[in-house]
Write a structure and sequence with these properties.
Elements: E1 5-11, E2 24-30, E3 38-47, H1 51-55, E4 76-83, E5 94-97, E6 104-108, E7 116-117, H2 124-127, H3 133-146, E8 153-157, H4 162-173, E9 177-182, H5 185-194, E10 199-202, H6 208-215, E11 220-225, H7 229-236, E12 239-247, H8 267-271, E13 275-278, H9 288-300, E14 308-312, H10 317-326, E15 332-336
Parallel strand pairs: 8-9, 8-11, 9-10, 11-12, 12-13, 14-15
Antiparallel strand pairs: 1-2, 3-4, 3-6, 3-15, 4-5, 5-7
Helix pairs in contact: 3-4, 3-9
Bound molecules: NADP nicotinamide-adenine-dinucleotide phosphate.
């Protein structure tokens, strides 16, 4: 019998409206004995991901809801410290997985999304960001769905988020003119001064419709939408003929139990022969390898940049989730376990 104990942040109450920190508790439990085909990951970093908000709701999303008393589901990276399948999971292998907000995670061969070994030389924090699911989402969303052409106008919301900041940089490399939309002057400054976006609008202090009209007088060819809701409706009003709207996320609707804003401006899509398309990275998991190789090159030669906001200690994960929905961070929020 193992004597190892597991510190976990568990869900004790489902949020009603905006998430509050009393929805979570820090608990200690025993680590289960490994069965054949399993390994034990010692978790190094866990993500504070927008998707967590959907997973802790009763209605669930593309995964079953996290149960009361269960560790909060999240992305993460860890190292194999015990194994019953040394071929699949050799000791010392660093892997990304849905580790959850906990110190240890038992992983099983064949689970989905797969436990993905991190390539040699890739730092765990890179694997949580540009060289992991964030990178893959931006890469596939831009290159496979949006497909920007040189000279096209590409607008991205949550422009300073992990996905948004990278999507804008990739679109720029494809020759598009990139306009961000973000929630603070510091974020606006980061994406324009450091990431090379052509412009960025602070949606909390500026009239987005008026600014888009000024910055994109001929309309928006591509809207990479991370936010949904009212902002999506505002941008739809300005979509160009043959425009494309990539529905990547709708974070404005996650942390509330209000009905989503009606999209009155969908009517403009027909006249302008524009289209909207949703996508989920989980449908394209087989392309993680390709995306990682390409993005690793771009990181190594300094072509793309990213930021992490690192919170120390698992016990601080709930308050980091609250910060995420306030937009009170610059860079991808991760917790060092
Ligand atoms: N389709 C997929 O497969 C897939 C995969 C991963 C992520 N996603 C989606 O991609 C988006 C970005 O994820 P991420 O992990 O990169 O995010 P992130 O780095 O955690 O950043 C999230 C940002 O969203 C903005 N935000 C929060 N609440 C908002 C609200 N009510 N209205 C407007 N903006 C709000 C905040 O920035 P501001 O200060 O600018 O408001 C916040 O900093 C999310 O919608 C996520 O669900 C989709």
């Amino acid at each position: 019998m193992t004597t190892r104990t597991n510190q976990q942040v568990v869900l004790v109450k489902r949020p009603q409206g905006a998430v509050t920190d009393d929805c979570f508790e820090l608990r200690i439990s025993a680590v289960a004995e490994l069965e054949p085909g399993q390994a034990l990951l010692e978790v190094q970093y866990v993500g504070v991901d927008p998707s967590i908000r959907g997973w802790i709701d009763e209605r669930g999303s593309y995964f079953a809801p996290v149960q009361i008393g269960e560790a909060v589901r999240s992305s993460g990276v860890g190292v194999v410290i015990e194994t019953t399948d040394p071929v699949a999971y050799p000791i010392g292998t660093v892997c990304t997985a849905l580790t959850g907000w906990q110190q240890y995670r038992v992983v099983t061969v064949g689970e989905f999304p797969p436990i993905t070994p991190v390539a040699e030389g890739v730092a765990p924090l890179d694997a949580m960001n540009v060289l992991g699911q964030i990178g893959m989402t931006a890469y596939l969303g831009v290159l496979d769905v949006a497909k920007p052409k040189p000279g096209e106008t590409f607008v991205v919301s949550a422009a300073a988020s992990g996905v948004g900041s990278l999507a804008g940089q990739i679109a720029k490399l494809e020759g598009a003119r990139v306009i961000g939309i973000a929630g603070s002057d510091a974020k606006v400054q980061w994406v324009t001064d450091e990431l090379g976006f052509d412009a960025c609008i602070n949606y909390k202090t500026q009239d987005v419709n008026a600014r888009l009209k000024e910055l994109a007088p001929k309309g928006i060819d591509i809207y990479f939408d991370n936010v949904g809701g009212e902002l999506l409706d505002v941008v739809l009003r300005r979509i160009a003929t043959r425009g494309r709207v990539v529905l990547c996320g709708d974070i404005s609707t996650y942390d509330t139990d209000s009905e989503p804003t009606p999209l009155r401006n969908v009517k403009y899509l027909m006249g302008r022969r524009a289209r909207m398309e949703g996508f989920n990275t989980l449908d394209h998991w087989e392309r993680l390898g390709e995306a990682t190789i390409k993005l690793a090159e771009l990181i190594a030669n300094g072509t793309v940049h990213r930021k992490d906001d690192i919170v120390e200690g698992l016990q601080h994960a709930p308050e980091a989730l609250l910060r995420l929905f306030r937009g009170d961070h610059l860079g991808k929020l991760v917790v060092k376990v």
